[in-house]
Amino acid sequence: MYSSNNSHKKGFPDPLADYSVKQDKSYGLQYAKAMYSQWGQSTDTHSLYGRRNKIFSRSRDYANGTQDTTIYKQLLNSLSPEKGDGSLLNLDYTPVPILPKFVKIVLNKILSRDPYPNLESTDPISSSEKNKEKERIKMQVQARKELEALKEMTGVVLDMDPDSIPETLEEAEMFMDTNIKTDAEVAAQLATSLTLDWANFNDSTFRRAVMDIVSLGMAVVKRNNDPNKGIDIEYVDPSTFLHSYTEDPNFGDLVYAGHIKRIPIQELKRIAGDQLSEEDYKQIANKVKDKYSNDASRYNSSHYDDRYMRTIYGYDEYMVELLDFEFISVDCMHFEEKDSRFGNTGFYFKGMDHKPKAGGVFGRTPHKMEVACVYGGTFIVGAEMVFDYGKKHNVPKNIHDLSRAELSYSVTATNIRRMMPKSLVESCTGFADMLQLTHLKIQQAIAKAKPDGLVIDIEGLENVQLGKGGELQPLEIHDIYEQTGVFYYRSKNPEGGFQNPPVREIGNQIRNIQELVSLYNHYLQLIRDTSGINESMDGTTPKGDMLVGVQQNAIAQGNNAIYDITNASMLLYKKVCKDVVKCLQIIPAESVLYKVYENAIGETNMGVMNSFRNLSMYNFGVQVVKEMEDKDKEFLEQNIQMSIQQGQIDLEDALAVRALKDVNQAERLLIIRRKKRMQEQQAQAAQNSQMQSQQAQQAAQVASQAKQQELQMESQFKQQELQLKAQLDMQMLQMEHQFKKEIETIKAQATLGFREDDQNFKEKLEVMKEEGKGQRQMQQQQVQQQEQPEE
Questions:
Q1: Who contacts 671 (Cβ-Cβ below 8 Å, separation ≥6)?
Q2: Of 194, 341, 693, 758, which sits with the fewest C-beta atoms within 10 Å of its C-beta?
Q3: What is the pLDDT of residue 757?
Q4: Is the per-residue pLDDT at 587 higher than 70?
Q5: CB neighbour class for 597 (10 Å; exposed up to 12, middle 13-18, buried from 19)
Q6: What's the pLDDT score for residue 305?
């Protein structure tokens, strides 16, 4: 425990004080009291803390649609010409949830893209390793065919499998941009994503922070190096955040920062532990027993708990305010350059409070380096006590400037002026009030609307009872009209004639309803113009009412209007990731937390990340990568479908393109796959053309061979025909010779026996002639007998 004995001191302590003075708790207590007094109390409406809280509370009410409706009742009562008519009592004063709708649109638009960290090492060592890796891949791309031939012939793979090597340099560049990471980058990205997941950052802390940026204009996140929880990312309510003066929306020049939180004394005992005694806790309870809704009657109550064997005090439930604060101070590190008796020169660290010695046998040259350090602790508001105060250890730093240090708070705002941020909701609250007032006037007009009624001319009617006095007073006529919708009047002109029919109908019309509706739409349009959320952006305009190009332009205008909110959100995400990755590199190897990360991401990865003990610390550049927007997805999907229909990519290529979250990388991959597919198609067409040419050549060769075979066969047929003809001629000659020989033989035989044969022949001829003559005579006789008539 420390209670200030220097309570009379006001203002900030000496920033140039020695290291030993800064380490004392009185220094921290004076610093915390100065911070708290500079901002003032939340109940003081004139203090910076009170004014900011008032604006933040009002903006949050409007963002949730729960603003105070008293102002509307006062305005309507002052504007009503007929006070006390009862029409204002039945109105529904529930705020119209227009601003909550716009807040959710912006919030969901930012969160729907699901950001995640992409770490790139920017230090010379990592850059050199990546360049070597890129050159190696380029060489393998150029020698891909030779490597494939070597693998096919011998089955040996030198480095990378030739099947996994990119085919072109463009594909290699795409591969290197997405897949080439050093061991340190892989380890850092795994550990950072794991830390964010353990802290439930994306689903809880980041969502609340983006909501604060939209509603309040700023967001605050604190990183804690908790020995039990590890690297914890805590949400901080901007209404409780105290900081040094700045006009930078990124809060990059903060000297001190802190936030106020309320916890019970029982929780304070757990946090502070033995640093505070029970008497200190009782003193703290005495200071707050009448504050923060604490029950003062429980201050002196206590009982002994046999189960836990400790005394439980009634004030353990009291709420107390704590200021968790940090500030940057510059300490001087002393070094000494000293010559030894052997003629060597050494450079020695002499601590933070070293004072150079005068004289000496050997030469001594003092050196010093001013280094920014972070001090911090917890201040108990109202009790003038601090605990956990001291110099912060394991503070992450940039290797390019080790003399600088940063606070553990990550803060960003859309804009800030005179320490007051301006939010989207605050810019629209005036128009939201007028819109709500118009909505109430519409309700009032509807409530005062009269039913369908009649206008009755009592001069034109006979025997009409006009009351006791025979006349109706104007107020009585008005009451009858309000209750029944019937209005009585005299339509008799001075001459005694009637101007109108005695009974006419009064139509049911709500007074000024169209003017009020137009006014409502006017203020709604003013809110749209101020916030930049048009009909296309929130999806209220039907697709058929607007051309695609016009709708895309309207969406682009809305995105430009909320760019400061989107940029602030991504900047906060980037700050948190950079802070986390620096803390990961300084986790002590002997700690339990180091073992936890070692089991989670592997011993090798943690060894690579903490290798700065022997080498220089890795310096990582963090890029926040977001999923592509809906319009980018639609445009990319159109290109994918068109490419599939034209046969320029396959289904596997489409799946690979859709798997990428970054639209630029997806478009590059689509172009590469299309070019690769077109080259394959060209190669296939050339191969088909070559095959067709070979087939035509083979067909020509087959036809030529068939022709030659036909000619050969024809020649063989002719040769065979000639041979057959020659054979036939020989056979004919032989037969002719044989015939001639036989004829000659016959002739010779005939010549020898011709005479004998001739005598015989003549004799036979005479006999035949005689026989023929006898036959003819017999035939003639028969004919003559037939011709003679019978007697």
A1: none
A2: 341
A3: 62
A4: yes
A5: buried
A6: 81
